[in-house]
Design a protein that fits this description.
homotetramer; 226 residues; alpha/beta
């Protein structure tokens, strides 16, 4: 499973609607929409769900977090090797609900690379996006925390924040893909995001908590094609 | 899957030797020894391995940690509901490699109860054992951190620490089962632990990194019978 | 400077109204009320203010937090020895705005004792109060976090929580003094607290943000005498 | 009190040898050497010592850490405003003994600026130095953690790490001053650091634990003049 851009990355968080069998069902919807449209849809699931989703759905699966610890005597930690072995091809890092120390992000990115995992480093603003870009993740996502879960899209409500981030990241690493997230609920939010220079979106409740997630994903994917 | 005492609880930590397929293999060894001897052997695995081990091995499976967060917008966290759904019947809490805030242990124990999960609260000494006992977990494990992974058994090297813990816990909660851990590598370590008033052991490298884990588990289980 | 019960313990938090010179001014008000009434009033100040308040005010001064680290290579930490040397006679631990790991509270209490500092361990409910009581602090304070800063007093709005805490602590350590806090703003709140079996109150905004803190302290102290 | 480059920044950590009166004595030595040589020597002290050192020594005083919280209900935290009011002109951030989340460093730098405090952001390698440089601190210090406290100087043992850091920071912010630290014990270590393109050193045990700290500081300062 490989990713391609534009990318729709669905974050299941720890929502009941996207846990266990329901994560698998969401993965299958994503697979179906991806097959229909040719747009890459990946899903970031809880560690307990990686194996099931990765073995039952033909889409790229991400972890939501890894710890920087190596394999060994680290009870309770989530290693790069464990999520890889379970079937993930990448991981989110430093999500606003799981912020990390700067040296931990650096170490986790290095461990992910050695385990052949992609890294999607999250940031709350342009400055922090630039900082995490300096640590050479596979991609950066900017998400203003105050918009997460609101349904007010970063790409329409704060376009200048997205533009500023795209520019800031470019200064540090001109080829690093930038995504945006927070409040994305419609295809036009996705379209607006792409127009601002991003190569995709990170979305959670907009899909997971939708009445018909497959319909929303289709709307998103079509927006990537127009 | 239910537990019974005496209990041998095997902590896989994030050892390569007990990740993915190898966690399943270890679970099957535990199942085999448990069937032969009638002694309860449970296994605490990484979150990525709970589903596979629980669905393939007829032994009680524990998580190594849960967060106190409920289901919802908590990216990267491990909820009681998620580990339960994946097949765990309990969880370690506050292991020396994953120490927690006192209010977090309280909250996690309450969440575990509402998700019908057992809780095995770890502590580093008699005082902290007494403190976590006050939070009403299903059992307490005392592990002097300086002996973890050494092969020097707490039950033979520091019997007074174990006795002191058993007494301290009894003052707070007379019926709460107490286990001990750290350095347990032989059946006589297990036997010594039981003689000190514990109802079982928490063991990691002594089993996971043994040349023949099944043989070690058999030695441990037989020690519980004598 | 020694403490006595009933005790009014004023927590300056990081309020602008109780920083630097203003902390000293508040300390002098407490000293004046204490002299007038004979009731012990102590003040918990920011580490930057301990020296000034302790050297200019004849009242017991507490730190708001200490780390468990010893003296040595621990940049940015606050040691028991440093706050003692600056003039504190005790410290808060595990305040709801500064929650700590259970093993850290245990270690910090032990370090405080060796530096001859009193410890006032905070807790959010009866279970956690019992847990921290097991670690042998000098006193315990229960503060339901949802009432902190509201002006709705724990002693009048949740008397059963205070009673339950007093009883729970007694089981673990019959002679350990218990205080309560959260929402204390009037003398009758203080009186109600004492009637419930506590030996004092922890108060912050009710004094620090009052128009006339000295008047409020006098009201509190008089309530201790009636 | 202003700083100038080359800068010798002495970190007192929580060493007994640099606590309370002894921090003041060390500050006076620094003042004396600074007066003799004209080289700027600043001192980073524990929060409990800022007021005393700043009011008794005519040298720039730094805090060792600030939290990102504003003034208000944040018991146990160290605010920018409090250390400023006590007399500090700047603060270390993200020292290897006090690592911080990337968003916390960003927020702390912004709060420090609004309180008119300088910020000296620490990093463990070139990548993390580049990351923290993106957050616009007043200066960056690279310190390989494995050399801290060893007496083996980063500037002579790992000159390539220092060069790589100076280059990496320049890419993000061409005018940002870079210092280095870890193992600095002699004037020639300082000289080597300056030759590599840094504008100063962060030093701790090399001065604090020296038999004659004033002599060492004089050696360091003279190395800045040659």
């Amino acid at each position: 499973m490989k990713i391609s851009y534009p990318l729709i990355l669905v974050n299941c968080k720890t929502y009941a609607e996207a846990t266990g069998d329901k994560a698998v069902r969401l993965g299958k919807m994503a697979e179906s929409v991806s097959n229909k449209t040719g747009v890459c849809i990946a899903i970031a699931v809880q560690p307990t769900d990686i194996y099931r989703v990765a073995s039952q759905c033909a889409i790229p699966v991400f972890a939501q977090h890894i710890d920087p610890q190596p394999q060994g005597a680290f009870t309770g930690h989530v290693t790069a090797e464990a999520v890889k072995e379970a079937g993930a091809i990448g991981t989110l890092l430093n999500h606003s609900e799981m912020r990390l120390r700067v040296d931990v992000i650096d170490e986790a990115i290095k461990r992910a690379k050695s385990a052949d995992l992609l890294t999607c480093a999250c940031a709350n603003n342009a400055e922090v996006s630039k900082a995490v870009a300096a640590l050479n993740p596979s991609m950066v996502v900017v998400e203003p925390p105050e918009l997460i879960g609101t349904g007010i899209s970063v790409s329409t409500a704060k376009p200048e924040d997205v533009l500023k981030t795209v520019d800031a990241v470019k200064l540090v690493n001109p080829t690093l893909p930038v995504l945006c997230g927070a409040g994305i609920t419609t295809g036009s939010d996705v379209k607006a995001a792409l127009k601002l220079g991003t190569v995709g979106v990170l979305v959670a409740s907009g899909v997971v908590k939708a009445k018909n997630p497959e319909e929303v994903l289709l709307d998103f994917a079509n927006a990537c094609l127009r």
